[in-house]
Design a protein that fits this description.
The chain is an alpha/beta fold. Helix content is about 30%, strand content about 15%. Strands 1, 2, 3, 4, 5, 6, 7 and 8 form an 8-stranded mixed beta sheet that branches. The chain has an 8-stranded mixed beta sheet with strand order 9-10-12-11-13-14-17-18, with helices on both faces. A two-stranded antiparallel sheet has the order 15-16. Helix 2 crosses helix 7 and helix 11 packs across helix 13.
Amino acid sequence: MKKGLSALLAACIGLSGAMGLAACRESEPIGDPGNVLVVYFSATGNTEQVANYIAEATGGDILELVPVEPYTADDLRWTDDNSRVVQEHENEELQNSVELVTVTPDGWENYDTVFLGYPIWWGIAAWPVNGFVTGNDFSGKTVIPFCTSSSSGIGESGDLLTDMAGTGEWLSGHRFRSSASQSDVVGWLETLGNFSGGDMGNAGGTVTPDPGDTDEEQPDGGYMPPPETGDGPAENAPTADIAVPTPDVRQTILLWNEGNIPAYNESYQAASADGLGFIPYIESFPAQGEVKGAVLICPGGAFQFRSTVSEGYNVAEELSARGYQCFVVSYRLRPYSQEVSALDLARAVRYVRANAEAYGINENDIAVVGFSAGGILCGELLLHSDGYQLPTESDPDYVPDSLDYVSAEASAIGHIYSFYGRLSVSDNNVETLRAGNLPPTFYAYGTRDPFYRQFIQNADAVREAGVEVEEHVFENVGHGFGAGNASCDWIPSFDTFLTNIFEEN
């Protein structure tokens, strides 16, 4: 068992802890935390990453709460009234019946400080943690909740868990954004005290994997430089300080460095759904089996929000199972323009291409697919950029790095209930579409979609512009079907579409 945090939370274990009664108070420094345990439940990998950062920094042991019946992608479809997670949300008895593989870890009585992590579901702690909280005696222990959420705060989740536990000294906890970096986590831990149990040497970004048996020094920041372009500015550009890819495990990768984000506007950021502190990022889903190529996935949401689960994670899981390295893109939202959002998508494509060898793909085998506004974003990138435009065209004060000189071109695009154009308005100008030198384009949409006619017109115009077009129309299907179902099973066709294109590259 490992010791962590040499001086973490002074004077926190008071009478309530000694008497075995639960109490919840604001986080404040306490004394020696003793033996540390990091416990977490993670549905999509975000909470798991934060938990690993905490365990690394504190030297604590780690326990993942795994349901006996794990949650599948279909289970987590929160927009489907018949999905498991929705049914459980509406039935407290179902919430409390989620059985865990392990409730009490070996040596439980020897732990002094417990970090408890979970995603936020409908404003409360994801209920798979309930079995752990009710199944253990926290007397004499300090419990520190943490959660991950793209928008919701920690709310009353900690207070509810405190009441549920009935014992222990519970601190108020902390919420991390879904794209939390290691430095975010370490920064929070530092507000609780000093460290001695873990490794603080890699606090600047994502966890750097062991390079293995190699004497080659890793570039600063972990980014592998792109191929030489022969362009003087590219050769002199600073190396991009961005995460090393971990192709075999899920990973959250910040696309820009704080303080050097092109077209950043503080008032816009504060007004957006993401709020201040948001940095555009991608989440990777490793390919299973033989790797065919890479797909960057842009969820929709009218540029007001991102439907990350139904139009991001669910799609990534389906495509990764078919052999694609998948990346869900969290781009900037309104009041930023779609042109600015396209900078984030371009950066994501460049990152994947620059690390093509690590991901086991041909650098040309990269596609983008978007849903509704996410498809419009993909079209914005490919229709109005030649793949080599620098972010300085949008922001002269931005300082380009080596990654900005990598091509942002894609070999294929998927418009899932979407089109080339702007929000709610398709661009059907054949000459404009022809001038865009567009890649093969895949359409999937339903006859009951309010934009049904525009999809037809756009596909016809793109076809007339000389672009290869594949079109799938689903009868009596509306907008927002995400990864599809029996009545609109578009993914197998998209797989075949991409396979044929990539095989020709």
